[in-house]
Fold this sequence. Notes:
There is one protein chain. The protein is elongated. Residues 1-7 and 151-163 have low confidence and may be disordered. The chain has helices spanning 15-39, 50-70, 75-96, 100-106, 108-130, 134-146. The chain is built from 6 helices and no strands. Helices cover 68% and strands 0% of the residues. By secondary structure, it is mainly alpha-helical.
Amino acid sequence: MSASNAGGHGGRDAPIKRVGRMIAAQAAAVSAAVHLLWAWPRLEAAGDPRPYVFVLGGAFTVAVAVATLRAPEYRRLYALGAGTLAAFLLGYVGWYGAGVVSALADDPLAIVAKGAEVVGVVAFLALYRLAPPTGVVLDRRDDTASGDGNRADDDPAGGGSDP
């Protein structure tokens, strides 16, 4: 069994994982964009901490989305993505309490953000479930770094395969 299929998790580029990463990253980017759109004009409002939290949270969410697309498949990264988007969801409910439905009905940006966050949480949790344990990913990275692959240019003698 090759390292890319260790434990039955498939490789990082399995089609379902590619689609999951695209959905998760796009949902995170939409959520971040909506939070930044809402917060930017309100940064100078005194007494409301939300604009500052939203700018920081939006920037962090963009960083998680980029890492999701570019980094190896780390369960911790996917848990961080799901947790960040879930924090936005729970924060909204905590801020508005019992009036959350009427607050959503009055704000189309909030509907877009909350929809993206729900989709993102589901996608990140699916990626978490599909990803191998961190130890497997680290073993793959070590195997690649040490040159244990089957490529001909990994051979120090430069011979490739025997004729």
